[in-house]
Amino acid sequence: MLPQTTTLRLCSVDDCLKVHRCHGFCDGHYSRWRKHGEPLASVPLRARGVPFLDRVNKDGPNGCWLWLGGTDTSGYGQLWLNGRQKLAHRYFYEMAYGLIPEGMQIDHLCRVRRCVNPDHLEVVTHIENIRRGTGSGSRTYCPKGHPYDPSNTVFNSKGHRECRICRVEWNRRSYEKKLAAR
Question: Do the Cβ atoms of 52 and 88 come closer than 8 Å?
Answer without folding.
Answer: yes
